[in-house]
Amino acid sequence: MNYFQKILEEIKKYKPESQAEKKYKKQILNFLVNNKENYLRTNPKGHLTASAWIINRQGGKVLLHHHQALDKWIQLGGHLERGELIQEAALREAIEESGLNSLSVVKHKIFDLDVHKIPANNSQAEHFHYDIRYLLEADSKVELVKSSESVNLKWLQLNEIEKYVCEESVLRMMKKTKKYKEDY
């Protein structure tokens, strides 16, 4: 099974928990099947991205960053490198953007799916990110190292997230984390 088939199979196996995610799953699969250039930045319509939803070991906090270009609090993540699987990209991006070396994958399955529009800027036209998210955990007592992509990094209690974020997809992951924490 080649790289592309592995990605398709992983997404096909994912069972969305909401109507929004069911819609996103269809959009992502459609995008991947109908666009030859679908995971690198070479496609001006959009590309696959990988995100890390990072909880602390106790499960009560989430690490978010205030993204400099987007000017909002979101999960860490970014673009895939050539030949990189989505989970590998999520882990790499999380390390690069937080400085955390204590990261580990909680489940080797997709945690969440999202499709969102990225506004035009000086270097690229408006396009879509077809985002695959994984649940990671780390020690929240370790010092964070902010990357150039972040204005700030912060561990937030689950009940604090709504003070910082109004993004539907981030709030959806917060709800999933609360549910996960109950089973933790």
TrEMBL record:
Nudix hydrolase domain mapped to chain residues: 45-179
Entry annotated with the keyword Cell membrane: no
Cofactor(s) named in the record: Mg(2+)
Pfam assignment, any one: NUDIX
InterPro entries registered for this protein in UniProt: NUDIX_hydrolase-like_dom_sf, NUDIX_hydrolase_CS, NUDIX_hydrolase_dom
Hydrolase found in the keyword field: yes
Keywords: Hydrolase
The protein's name: ADP-ribose pyrophosphatase YjhB (NUDIX family)
Origin species: Halanaerobium saccharolyticum
